[in-house]
Design brief:
Transcription Regulator spoIIAA; 699 residues; 19 helices; VC0802-like; Rossmann fold
């Protein structure tokens, strides 16, 4: 008899304890988070390797003790007579899990154990075992919990969730032992005669594991590599007997298992995996939309699924309406069924508007998830009506759209703001770009509950499609926080949804998904129109030009020449593309440079200079930091040197509380006219402090 340590994922401990006591009836199991132990035989350990549907690893413990130092760890490993377990020409690996104050690095712990093993062999002979990470002859496992370290042989070799039937997976595969836990917690595993359906089956893991349970197939039966294959203590006779017995214990399926997914590609993968697992005939596969699919069997059964979680921010825009639609469908089409869903986003499940009967915590990989059971009884099948009609956010957007309707007809643009944090609880800005919406969430203050803020955002995304008519697939979500340097221009997505929009006879390219800003500042629409009116036969300089939209309007307004300056090559290329879109060619120059340094040494002369700098920047590409309040006088002094007689500077910025140094402007010989009010478009009138703007004219 020996100590056997069995590990599993968080949340599966109690289920695993029950499984161990069933497979090893005499076991007295001790539990700790993620690990269970008992005293048992090698046959018990082999049985768990072959039959456990919930375990990750089965460890044959060789030594355990207190380790307050690296020397203690070395001594713990050295106490084992390693030549009894492997040969000098064998390979080994050491996996070290957990840390404490003395051993605060898992790699260091693994190396220390490896050194102790190797040193034993070098003391007896000149040859020593070598390290092999993938499939060593002897995989060694060490677990550190506080000061206690347990050391043993990993009989499972690789994690037991790897059943050796997966040919391919989807983007976020469900681990096999988690699938089994879902089936057990749902109640179906105790009543396999009932129909089972997975309507979001992905690569088929849950359905395949269900077929294994229904047919009493040992989950480890197809694995060829085990951690005991090269172990000197391996009992081959006992193992072969257990394998033979497991094969004989298999039985025909007496249940009906359905697996479907909207993706035909995933269904093909699921079919191949089921075929490799030997249960293809036990599962009925189909490609269909879960939000529209009817129950596949007349008898009431169990629907168990692992729907998408929406881990990435932008995914919520499509998932929230999908879950809302799915919830309504479940209420009408799946009456009487038991529903079990796993998700890391509990708020997403709330969109279903179902009352849970049971709720369990468990991890799927590193994700902390909730497994929720629902019974589709009369109470759960009640429909919620009038949600969008009665919701305060939906009503406010509807009201805004009504007010904007006549204004939009008078504008020559298909881009405008429809909502800007009008309601304190719904702290977002929403802009329309033709048939797309861009939603920017303002990061909530620290005193606002994070969960409440997240639920409010989900309500925004849920109601927008119904109120605006824009489908969820064309809503882009971004989070606007206080930015440093050029962070507002940094790329944070790779979807690349680009669109050509129009504004006052100009065509402009916007990117709706990949950057915090789209490439077009809508609040400067009237400012650009003013530049257009002032540029006829003028030499124009556009500083901090971003994607060059102001330069476009200067050129379209008949400017004699236009110089566009920005520090980013990406945005200058974007500006050139905007010029091409408008068929503009001529004396148009694009300069990649730090605008402050470029302007200080520049000797060109311009009739009109447009300056719209950031509030603050500490970009590595700049020679020093930039603060618009601190540095605007120096910048405008240099700009004034490049200004022709009777020339004009349009100076704008969006720093809250900014104060223009009027006395310094007078000293430069510049007349000052505040034109902020004339440059705030109607769709931004609710928040007229979006920017400030002045005309500075050389006297």
């Amino acid at each position: 008899m020996n100590t056997i340590l069995v590990t599993t994922s968080r949340g599966l401990d109690e289920l695993l304890r029950q499984e161990i006591e069933t497979l090893c009836p005499q076991a007295e199991v001790k539990m700790s988070p993620g690990a269970l132990s008992f005293t048992g035989s090698l046959e018990n350990a082999y049985t768990l390797c072959l039959w456990s549907r919930l375990a990750n690893r089965v460890i044959w413990v060789l030594s355990s003790g207190k380790c307050d130092s690296a020397e203690d760890l070395y001594g713990l490993a050295d106490n084992v007579d390693w030549p009894q377990h492997l040969r000098s020409n064998d390979t080994l690996s050491v996996q070290f899990v957990g840390t404490n104050r003395a051993i605060n690095n898992t790699q260091f712990g693994a190396v220390k154990i490896k050194d102790a093993i190797v040193d034993q062999f070098l003391q007896e002979c000149s040859q020593r075992p070598s390290v092999e990470r993938k499939q060593p002859d002897l995989p060694i496992y060490a677990r550190c919990q506080r000061e206690q370290v347990t050391l043993g042989i990993d009989l499972s070799g690789n994690s037991l969730h790897q059943r050796a039937y997966r040919q391919q997976t989807g983007d976020a595969p469900l681990k096999e032992h988690i699938a089994c836990a879902m089936l057990m917690r749902s109640g179906w595993a105790q009543d396999t005669a009932k129909p089972l359906a997975d309507m979001m089956c992905g690569s088929g893991t849950l359905a395949i594991e269900a077929a294994y349970i229904a047919r009493n197939i040992a989950p480890g039966i197809k694995r060829s590599y085990w951690g005991f294959n090269g172990w000197l203590g391996h009992d081959n006779v006992t193992w072969d007997r257990l394998v033979t017995s497991a094969i004989e214990a298999q039985k025909p399926s007496s249940t009906t298992i359905f697996a479907s997914d909207i993706s035909k590609n995933l269904i093909n993968i699921a079919r191949k995996n089921a075929d490799e697992a030997g249960v293809y005939q036990d599962i009925q596969f189909a490609s269909q939309d879960a939000t529209k699919a009817a129950p596949p069997h007349k008898d009431k059964g169990y629907l168990v699924s692992n729907p998408p979680y929406g881990e990435r921010l932008g995914e919520l825009t499509e998932l929230l309406p999908l879950f809302s639609q799915w919830g309504k469908h479940l209420k009408t089409a799946w009456k009487g069924w038991h529903i079990t869903l796993l998700s890391s986003n509990r708020d997403l499940l709330r969109v279903l508007k179902l009352r849970a009967s049971k709720d369990y915590a468990m991890n799927n990989g590193k994700l902390e998830c909730r497994l929720v059971n629902y019974i589709m009884d009369a109470a759960n099948c009640e429909q919620f009506s009038g949600d969008a009609q009665d919701h305060e956010f939906a009503n406010r957007v509807r009201k805004n759209l009504k007010k904007l309707k006549s204004w939009v007809k008078q504008q020559d643009t298909n881009c405008y703001r429809i909502y800007d944090a009008d309601l304190p609880d719904y702290n977002v800005a929403i802009d329309r770009y033709d048939d797309w919406l861009v939603v920017q969430e303002y990061a909530p203050p620290k005193d606002i509950d994070e969960n409440k803020a997240r639920r409010r955002l989900q309500e925004v995304l849920l109601h927008l499609p119904a109120v605006t008519g824009v489908p969820a697939s064309k809503i882009s979500l971004k989070v606007r926080e206080r930015q440093k340097g050029t962070a507002q221009y940094d790329k944070f997505d790779q979807k690349g949804v680009k669109k050509v929009v129009y504004e006052n006879d100009a065509k402009l390219l916007v990117n709706l998904t990949d950057y915090l800003d789209t490439g077009l500042f809508l609040d400067h629409r009237d400012t650009r129109k003013r530049v257009h009116q002032m540029s006829k036969d003028k030499d124009v300089l556009n500083l901090f030009a971003y994607t060059g939209s102001v330069s476009i309007f200067a050129a379209l307004g008949g400017a004699r020449s236009v110089c566009t300056v920005d520090m980013s090559k990406t945005y200058l290329d974007w500006a050139r593309e905007n010029f091409r879109l408008n068929n503009l060619s001529g004396p148009y120059v694009f300069e990649q440079a730090d605008c402050t340094q470029w302007l200080a040494s520049h000797r060109g002369q311009y009739d009109l200079i447009f300056v719209d700098p950031p509030s603050f920047s500490n970009s590595k590409r700049m020679q020093s930091t930039w603060d618009v309040q601190r540095d605007h006088v120096a910048l405008l002094t240099d700009a004034c040197k490049c200004l022709k007689a009777n020339g004009t500077i349009i100076f704008s910025n969006n720093k809250r509380g900014f104060k223009l140094d009027s006395s310094a402007m007078s000293a430069l010989g510049l007349g000052v006219e505040d034109i902020t009010a004339q440059t705030i478009p109607g769709d931004f009138a609710r928040h007229a402090n979006i920017h400030k703007c002045w005309i500075l004219k050389k006297c």
